[in-house]
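Researcher: I'm preparing a figure for a lab meeting and need a structural model of a single chain. I don't have an experimental structure, so a prediction will have to do for now. The sequence is pasted below. Please return the structure as tokens so I can convert it later.
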Amino acid sequence: MKQDNSISIIENVRKFVKEECQKSSSKYGSEPYQFHFVPMVGYAKKLAEELGGDMEIITIASWLHDIGSIIEGRKDHHISGARIAEEKLQSLNYPTEKIDKVKNCILNHRGSKHSKRLTMEEKIVAEADALSNFENVSGILKAAFVYEGLNQKEAGKALRKKLQNKYDQLHFEQSKQMIKPKYEAVKLLFE
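Model: Understood. Here is the structure written out token by token.
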């Protein structure tokens, strides 16, 4: 019974994220669901299988890690996301102690904030978020052109810098080996 409930919660959370991405009020349109959330969850599950950690917490936090950005915008989205996640999970009668673990993963997922990640779950969610950027080079360029108003030269430079930062943020050797071919390809194409 517990496993079925876990699957039900995860599926409810996944649907919630997809629906929020598809709303006209979504700050970045529907594309982040397919091009960021789905790959990010895939990396998180793969890392959890290899490194350990609570798969349920990792999966739920991975689906919800950027929900604040989708609903309210990028600024402080780790804080708004933790609040939104708490509200959603409470509505699903998810246990309070698990909600706190999911919230900590969301609060500490941003590489730019240099948060201390104390649990394996927090480390994996942050790591998977960094890895997913290598699956979405076109999305990074779109953000540079559309949302930041950069020209081609500036966008290429911003892409290289962002992916260099993401690669440098990786802590697990498994992650670096997993993503190194894509990282090297981006460096070659955008040098």
